[in-house]
Amino acid sequence: MKGYWIIFGSDVIDSDAQQEYGRLWAPIGEKYGAKIKVFESGALVEVQSTKRVLAVEFPSYEQAKACYNDAAYGEAKLFALRASSREMIIIEGDLA
Questions:
Q1: 2-93 — its CATH code?
Q2: Which SS3 state, helix, strand or coil, does residue 58 take?
Q3: CB-CB contact of 25 with 76 (8 Å)
Q4: What is the Cα–Cα distance from 8 to 3, expressed in whole angstroms?
Q5: Which residues contact 59 (CB under 8 A, 6 or more apart)?
Q6: Alpha carbons 60 and 67: distance in angstroms, whole number
Q7: Which of 20, 24, 51, 58 has the most CB atoms at less than 10 Å from its CB?
């Protein structure tokens, strides 16, 4: 089954950090076969602080977890956490 990161984020507060995260993420995402889906803000129906929702699809749950635990992602994540506040879950399934 596929694996997903579901990310709930605030507005970006550091665009330079977000840009660096994107630069570092590109080869990591490619390595793990990740596909990113950004949801429209209208998808948020019961929210308090979330402004953005993303789903990152991986070919398998194992790859989703391996990507998160990859040392290169650990470095990239530092920039993501500077760029905005976020919460993330990793799930297994098929979101179609």
A1: 3.30.70.100
A2: strand
A3: yes
A4: 16
A5: 2, 3, 32, 33
A6: 11
A7: 58
